[in-house]
Structures are given as structure tokens and as C-alpha cells.
## 1
Amino acid sequence: MSTARLVARNEWRLMQRSRVARLALFMLLALATVATFTSIAHRNASDDLRARFQAQADQEFDGQPARHPHRMVHYGHFVFRPLPALAAFDPGVDAFTGNTIYLEGHRQNSANFGDVRQSSLLARFGQLTPAFVLQVLAPLVLVFIGFGLLAGERRSGTLRVLKAHGVTPRDLLLGKGLALAGLAGLMLLPALASLGWLVIAAEAPALPALALALGYAGYLALWVLGIVIVSAIARDPRNALVTLLGLWALTTVLVPRVAPDLALAAVATPTRLETDIAILRDLRKIGDSHNPDDPHFAAFKARTLAQYGVSRVEDLPVNYRGLLALEGEKLTSQLFDDYAKRQFEQQRRQGAIVSGFGLASPAIALRSMSMALAGTDLDGHRRFLTQAEAYRYDVVQRLNRLQAEAVTYSDDSNRNKDPEAGRRVRIDPANWSKVPDFAYQPASLAEKLRSALPGAAVLILWLLAATWLLRRAARRLGEAL
């Protein structure tokens, strides 16, 4: 048996005798287990609820009576974002961004009904997930158990005794690190079990789940290396504990909390009210379909008449009011898309700034990688918004086309004056069921891996830096003996 393994086995024996170590490990494993079961149950319940509401919204839309097509444009529709299976491991931004959008003509609404927005502060504090346990709590437990690995040996004067028995600094650091790594492996077990369950029972994609397991294993390995390094160079256990607690607070609490605020200050974004006002201002500039003297729609009318070879809108083979609705929705939707692209670009720049802080906090790098692999990052939310808007535009234009083709211009113009015309503009309700249902398309495997790559690269850089520092610590420990 190698010297490093002997040191590790002896350290394991000491940890087993320590009531503090046993209690800390038991509490963390209990928290991780509870987090696993509650997070899976919450994800399943939330996804089932969304699926039920989506089916109800589809049924109510399809079951509308005979109406004027433009009435259906304003009746609107609800769409819900389904939760990916790995959201049970890391829910990411889902609870903050909202998961429901009301779709209607002439408007682009934002997502509503995020879980956190609707809950109290107490409920928000109680959001325990496997990702949170491993990102925040597991490093803290490792710190309290391992801060005295080498600093305690230094204080008790046993380092020279170990050297006299032929134990090299390298073997000593390796053995202590192996012991603490074994403890970290135990902490990882509930998370691995949850990922395995999600792959088998919930049909979560296997490769992202494996990448999540490797990422969190690397993160805990980084903390093991950091604890061994600090304990090796500290003069006594107290200094080691204070230093490690400071590093934990800085990298897992302070920097992740401050980084988004700095990103918001660097790349300011307008509020929802400011955006709505700007859109209304621009809508007035692009044209008013209700104004016969509007330059854009006057030119549109001339082009339409020339296309069909007639001189009056009454002579068109289609309903001109429906054509106006098609053109108006096209213009407003282009404007909505322009504003959405600007907002997405601002969010992308803010996200890049926050990701840059991963060089100061491995927790940020891990969080970025974790949410990307789970499909619960901001890119996933933007994907939902983009697909919902594309679906809204398609539904509204289908209904506008029905107005143009299934309703005559004469009846449409006189529907409020002539009861018979008002009856004829209410078309067959079978048309509503021909509108396709919303089907959200999640990111592909390649897109998830590509989004997770920057965070994974930063974690690898941290591990390489910690390995280099460990060698320096071994050399310094050898010089001190």
C-alpha cells in the first residue's frame, strides 16, 4: 500500500471518530436527499399543471362558437412553457422569468406567473434543490471538516514526526486530499442518484446528465484542492478556517450576488413601461390602417388594386379589411421583433459580463454550465419567447387570412348595421380547430453543450490553477520541515 493511501486511510479513521464530521456529513446528506425528492416532486407537479392548463387553453380556443375571425384575434390564446426533465436538478431561471404568455393580436406580451414572483420571502428561502446543495452547502461542509487537515498537524508538531518516518510532503498532501475527496464523493451520491433517476424514469437526456455529474464532481474537487492548499500554508487551524470561510463567502455568496448588479449598471435596460411607450411611439410612425390618408396604407391600397386590376376595394375578390389586418399585423410584428432582438442583445451582453466574473468565482462558472445543460438558463427562456411570438404571429395571420377569404367586404362593412350581415361574418367554428397547437422545441444536445462550454472551460482553468498551487504548497511544506 502506498504512503499516500496509508495517510488517506488514517485520515478517514480520524474523520469517523469525529462527531463534528459525522454530524456535518449526515446533515448535508439529509438535506441533499430531501432536496432531491422535493425538487423532483415539484418539477413533476409543475410540469403536469402546465400541461393540463395548456390542454384546457387549446380546448377552449378550439371550442369557441361561430365568430368573426377578428374577434378570435382579440380573444387570444395562452401558451405554457414545459419544464425540461433536468429542471428537477437545477431549475435555473424558470421560477423568475415566468412560464405563461397570453397571445393576442397587435400586442407582444411578456411571460408571467413565475413561481418566485408569486411566493413569499419565506417560500423563496425554502427553494432547496440538488444544485443549490452542491454549489453552496457542500463546500461549506468540506471547509469545516477539512480546514485542519495539515494546519492541525503543524500545530500539534506531528509534521516532523511524519517526515522522520519517510512521509514526503507530496504523499502527505495527496493522502489528505484523497481522504477529503472521498468525503466529497459521498456528498455527491444523492445528486448522482437523482440524475440517474431522471435519465431512467423521466427520460432526461443522458449526455447532459453525465456532463452535469462531471461538472459538479470537478467543482467539489476544486474545493478539496483549495482546502488542502490553504491548510498546508496556514500557520494554525484558526487562520486556515478564517481564510477558507472568507473564500467561501466571497466566491459563493458575494461575487455571484454583486456580478448581476454590476452587469445591469454596465448595460442598462429600459423598463417594461418605457419599452411599451417607445413601441407605441414607433407604431404611430409606421402607419395607421384606420386612417385612409396614411401614406403607407394609401400606397398599400394602390398596390393591392393594381395587383388585382380593379379600381375600387369593393371590386376585389377578397375582403380588403382582411388584407389591411394582414398588413397591419406584419408591420407591428416586425416592430415587436426589432425591440425583442435589442432586448435579447442587451441581456446577452449582461450575461457575458456575469460569466466573466467566473474567473473570480467558480460558482458562477458552475452555475452557468449547470443551467445550460439542464435547459433552464436564460437562453432557454428566450427560446420560449421567440417560439411563442412566432406562434402568435402565425395564429393571428391565419385568422386575418380567414377574414380576407371567408368574409365578404360588404358584410364586413355592414355587420354592425345589418343583422343578416352580422350573422354571415360569423364563420364556421370548425376553422378554430384547424389552428395548430403550440409545441415548444427545446434546445438540441449540440446547443446545450455549446452553451455549457464557456462555464466548463473556466472550471477547468480553476482546476489547473489549483493543481499548480498544490505543487507550490507541497514545495513550501517541504521547506518548512
## 2
Amino acid sequence: MKFGVVIFPGSNCDRDMIDALKNDLHQEVITLWHKDKDLSMFTKEDCIVLPGGFSFGDYLRCGAIARFSPMMQSVIEFANNGGKVLGICNGFQILCESGLLSGVLLRNGNMQFVCKNIFLTNENSKEKKVLKIPVAHGEGRYFANENILNDLQKNNQILYRYCNSEGLCAVDYSPNGSINNIAGICNKQRNVFGMMPHPERACSTLLGNTDGKQIFSDLFSIN
């Protein structure tokens, strides 16, 4: 399995993602510049990653400008043809802006940037676990209307929810006030994934936390 990591002006988590995929998960990685278009080296079994950061300085709206990058036009086509796409933090925002995922990411409920470890439950795994994963965002409050939320629930598209260390989901345990404590979702076809927490920052024993490996295992069956 190959991973392509897209780099936008303002990306600041691309190196973290590349390092985690290469050195901790032992995967092949190809870097992709936002002005390029060629994804011919990837198949449906591979994955394109949109990393975190502040693409184009978050001007206008988080992810709104990156959505129109030449590479994103190819990523949209790749996803629509069944290819796997993962968006982390700003990447999640870009996926929502591009229409590959439903809903929007709004300013955090406390109107402040949040950077800390939080707890997640993996909603769609055979064995539910509580994972400790870092977050770092100012616009991470997931919101969607009632129809979208009902569809997400009905189709098991909610992948991760914020919780406490015991796995209890309640609004007090969300770092941003996301509706229904939603931290990550996928599309109905289950080939496009987005989440605000940063699993790539929790893959190394040197950092004292490898819970992020469970997320890559859940999504792509790699350890």
C-alpha cells in the first residue's frame, strides 16, 4: 500500500505524517505538491493523505482555498473512482469544503485554539477501545444538520467520538463542542475518512503513546 501526502502552502503536519507512515508504520510514501495533478502512480488500494496545518493561511475559510488546488481536483476524481483519501485536521476541513465529506468545521465552542491530548472511542471497530490522541485546532467543531446526522448514524459513518478516559461520551469531554461529540467520519462508500485529532502524532514509542497506530489499523489494516 502506498500513501501520497499532499503538501499545501501552510501545511505544517506533513512531515509528522510522512515520518509516522515511513518510520513507525513502514509504509511507502510519495509527497505530492498542491500544484501538480498526476496521481497515476496510485491505485484504489492506495491512499492520498491531506495533512494538518493552515493551508493558504486559513484565509477566507479553513480549507476553502486549498479545495481549488490543481491536486485537489485529481484527489476528488480519485475518491469518486473509489480511491482512499484521509484528511487530518485541516485535511478534514478541506474534505468538507470539497464535498467529499458532509458537514462543516466551525470555530471551537470556547473560541480558543486547543492543543492537548484527548480521548476517543472507535465507534465502528469490532472491539471498542478508548484511544488517547492529540488535537491542535481552532476550527474543529463539527456541525451538520439533522438530516445529515441521521444519515451518518444510519450508515455507521461516525468513526470516532470524543470521550473521557473511561469511554463516556458527553459534551464536557469534547475539546471543541462538536455536535454529538463527533471527532471523525467517513463517506457512505467508506473510502474517504476525515478526523480532527492527529493519529500521526501518537505512533512513536519515543513520544510515549502509540494509540495512533490503532487508527491506521482500523482504517487501513496496517500496524
## 3
Amino acid sequence: MRFVLVLIGIMFALDVLWWAISARIAKPIFARVGVAIFALAQLAGLIWLLTQRFAHAESMALFSKFAMASVFIWHMILLPLLLLLAVALLPILAMVALIRIARRVRNSNPPLLDANGALSRRQFLGVALAAAPPLCNLSLATIAMRQLDHFRVRRFVLPIAGLPSDLHGLTITQISDMHVGRFTSGRILRNMVRVVNELRADLVLLTGDLINDALVDLDHGLDLVRSMQASHGVYLIEGNHDLIENGPEFERRMKHSGIPFLLDESVVITVRGTPLQLLGLSWTRARENRDSAIATAVRQLLNQCQPESFPILLAHHPHAFDAAAAASVPLTLSGHTHGGQLMLNEQYGFGPALFRYWSGLYAKGASKLIVSNGVGNWFPLRVRAPAELLHLTLLRS
């Protein structure tokens, strides 16, 4: 909690600092007014989002998705980038400031306008520098809005060693990171359910983060899950966002929902006369040595494996794959990474910076891992990490 408060304080401080600097370099009154309006709007937006968050309310009827996207992008991307740029350019900025001070000693204040009433070149440059970050913010928010209602269907055909012959051709629709709430609502959720049902998979498996964070959205999320169809059932595990507001209450309501919810539990289902075991891993809450804690949790869960059943591990965090592969689990399904969210290309970005496995198919020996980019969003902007549903076809190798 202390870290969160410090982070919020830094955001407010950066807002005020940007406002002060931009107002100083943008001399014309119209530019200063524009800077003030943008800065006040961002501060008001941040206060509104924090109020909603701490009030455990996710209803944003009075605050458009575009405005929310603008606030998120400004405070989580552009302000940090501007701070890093300022730190990198600090020696140059200091030298420029000294030169300007020396010129002011020699000259009186230069006129704001030239003889024809136009901005001087220096003043035009100041206005442009002050206007660039807000314009970039609005452009990125516009791009984000175009993305929020779109997702792809990504298909994998997986040869699986040891797959029982009766399970050859088994189809799975994997749904991860729906994040029902702030940015994922309305049309995209209706389209998602429609596409899931059109895929007519044998199994629908949800690998965590059903809701964004507010329990007020859980009933809607559950209604969506109940609308999904699969010939052999729909199964669900938890993710970290599900537990943000009140983890025990989320788990309690899930257990009473009537939807198969696997919380460090397993279920054996019969598919074409063959037993298939789904093992659902809970979210590991450890703050330190998380990977070790995840591995321990996986090993404990795998004690439930029944030798006569074909096992599939559902784990929100993809690092569970290491322990699963060590135990020769043939298939693990994960999410959590959002495909890296912001990627320069397939190899560089937040994905590989934060995770060993971040998108698509990975293999260790005969064990395979699928990591979904997720179909929903907690952050509005994606770069080279498109939202997706996964359709898997298992083949006997």
C-alpha cells in the first residue's frame, strides 16, 4: 500500500511539474491556457479513477473510455518517458538555461510578437514543445480506442506425445484475461461469446482474470461465462486481477456460481470414453521468490494427478510451465502477460523483459506451453500484442 501511495504521489508531482515547465516555455496566453486545461483535465481524470478504485466501483458512465485511455497513457507511458528524456538531456538543458540567462543580462526581454503580430521563431518552438506531449497523448488514446473492440482468433495445431488415440483431434477454446470492467465491456464481450460459441470446441477453458478488479463486475462476467458453450464443459481458474479488491470474496462467489472453478483442484471428465484431467492452479500471492512459490504450488497440485487420465494444467502465470515440464505434464495453458502489451517486435518489449514465456507456443522436451495474449484489457494500448482468443487442436504425435 505504501508503494502505491508513493506511486500516486509521483504521478501528481509529475503532472504539476509538466504543467509548470510547459507554461514557462509556452509564452503566449492561448498556449498557457491550453496547457492549463490539459493539465487540469489529466489531474481531474486521475483523481476520478483513484476515487472509483478506492470506492470499489467500476461504473464509468460519467467518464468515457477515451478519457480513461488518455489518463492511463499519459500517466503510465508519456509522463515517465518525458521524465527519462529530461534526465537524459539535463546537461544540455542546463547549458541552454545558462546561455539564456547570459542573453537576458545583455538584452531586455524580447518581444512576444514580431512587427506583423506573428509569433517569433523562439515562441513558436516553445508552443510546439508544449503542445507535442498532449497531441501525442490524444493520438495514442485514439489508436487505443480503435483496438479495444477488436480481437483475433489464433489457431494452434499441437502434436502431443502420449495423447490417447480417442483424444486425437480434441479442440479447446482458451480464453484468458477477459478483464470485464473498465476497458472491456459492451460490444467486444458480446462478440467474444458469439465467436466462442461459433468455434464449437470440445472444451472452453478460462485461464484467469475474469474481471478487471471490481467485484461489482463479477455477476456480468459470470453471465458471460454461462453463455459459453462447449460439448464437454466450460472450466475456469483465477488470476491476479480477480483478487485485487477482495480475493476471498471472489473465490467464495465463484464457488457458489455453479461454474466449475478449479482452485488448486482438479476434475476428471470423460471425453470420447477417455478420462481427461484438468488441474487448476490458484494465483500465487507470494511477493518474494515468486517463481519458487509457483513451482511449489504446481508440484503440490500435481499430486492429484491420476495415472490413467490425460492431464492439462491451467495456470494463470506462465512460469508454472517450468515445474510442469519437469513433471512431464504434456500441456500447460496460461495467460497473464497480455503478449507483452507493448512490444517493438516479437523479441523486444515488456514481454521478454518481464517473463520467460510471454506469447504463443513454447516447448520443453515433450511438454508444451501455450500463453495467450488475452482477449480483454486493463491497459488500453497494445503494440504488436493483439488481443486474442485461442483455438487449439490436439493431435496424437
## 4
Amino acid sequence: MNSTDLSVLKTAVAWLQAGQRVAIATVVQTWGSSPRPIGSWLVIREDGQVAGSVSGGCVEDDLIRRVQSEILPLSKPELVVYGVSQAEAARFGLPCGGTLRLLVEPRPELAILEKLLDAISQHHVLQRVVVVASGQSTLQTLNPSKAPEQTFIFDEQRMVTSYGPRWRMFIIGAGQLSLYVADFALAADFEVIVIDPREEYIEGLQRAEIRFVQGMPDDVLLELGLDPHTAVVALTHDPKLDDMALLEALKSNAFYVGALGSMTNTRKRKERLLQFDLNQEQIDRLHGPVGLAIGALTPPEMAVSIMAEVIAVKYQVTITQNKT
């Protein structure tokens, strides 16, 4: 789940807990060009306040009006369509004659949303199933051992949406390069956790958007847990710190594990790791030298190359290159 969708969920829960009436609108189908993908959602409060987006601003004003006057009094979900005709698409600013179909829930169930938010915070993977005829919803837990596809199903009878935790990046080491990598990871919508036991690096990481954990990296990784939504990047240049973290990361189902170092140092590191309880298949998961070979020399350039490789692996894009 990206940070925007998570913010919508948190807002919906907070408003419902405060006793406000709200409706949740979800994009269930699109035709032509659409500003927002299927599964995008927003929450509308009874006084017209909103969080999230279903069209990038094209239809929100009209949707708020319809929710307040027509949909909030209902007891069951309502299907709302924008852009049926070329003229209506132009009126609402939908590009290229696009059409947008929304499922609006006037009575979302607080208990279900609270359970969903709690499960996501614990890095669980779930599906929310909404029965269109009644508006009732249920949660189904999915296999946490592998990252699911972003499944979305709408078949007129039900809406099924998959929710997973935010993508996370654990950065081992709090040096200058780590801060640049953290900045790019934040921009790519990752939750960032920097781990370093060295006290002299604490002051440079006093930033609200980055979580800093002082401790041995392997212990912290075990404590916080690794899952298929997690990347681990080791950047300390200190085998005592990097290697111990890599031992845990390579045994886990983290989607990306990388380590800074030259080709020679990477070869030596892999030889060291073979002496522990790792097999060759696990060691082959290590991305090293970390990052794409784009000729990067400065810390910002190296951070770009690292994030480019992480994103490619995240989306399962194969990039073949010689890192020598």
C-alpha cells in the first residue's frame, strides 16, 4: 500500500471514530484514458471534507455534492459513472474521452477498517471483500510469505481489493551515502529505517521522516522483521556490521538485498558468507556491487543508481549489465 492510500484509510478510521458520517469511493472500472488507476479511493466526510483522489481533481467536486445530497442517506453502495458521453468526459476534464466508474460505500464498517489498518501496521497482507448488494465487507488474510499481486476484482456482485504494508527500506549504516539513499527512497514512497550502532552518527540523522534505530543491524532486522515488501541495503563498508545484517536478510523473503563494495570485495564477501549457514542460492540473491552500473562517482549519483536497481527489482524488471 502506498502512503496516499494508507493516509486515506487512517483518515477514514479517524473520522468514523469521531462519530462523523463518511462515504468511501473506489475506482472500479475505467475506459479510455483515466487520471487514476483502478483501486484508487477517497473518503468523503458529511461536511464535504475529503482525503485521497479518484480522478486527480476532475470529478471530486461533483462527487462530493452527490455524496452529500444523494448517497450518504442510502444504506447500500451506489455505482457512479462519469464520462459516459464525449461531452460529459469533456465537462469533467477526463482526458481522451475517458470513463470512470466508482463504487461509493455510504456506510463503511469501522470495525473492518480498524482491523485492516492494524493488520497493515503489522505487515500482514489482506483482501477486503465488499458485497455490493448489502455493503457488508469481510477481511481475508493472504499468504504473508510472498508479496501478492495488486489484485482488484469487481464483478458487479463484489469488490475485492488486496492490501499490503508500505514498501520499506532498511539502510545499514548512517553515513553520507545513506542519507542520499534515504532521500531518494522517501521520494519513491518507501518507509525508511536506518540502522547503526555507532553513537557518532546519531546527530546527523535527526530527521522526522527517517526512523533511526541504534543497535546491531542483525538484531534490529530480526526484531522488526523482514517481508516481501522490504529492501535491505548495507552501506557501512564494515564487514562486522554489513555481513551480519546480510546473513539475516539473505535468509529472509526480502525482495531486495544489496551491499556496497567493489567486485573484489563482493567476491570476498560471498566467500565469507558461504562459511555460515547460507546456501549458494541464498548468496546469489545478493546484489553487489549495489546499484546499476551507470558510472556513478559522487554519493548522490551512487544513490540514484542504488534506487534505480531497487525499483527495477521491485517491479521485476530484468536489467542485464556487467558491473565490472
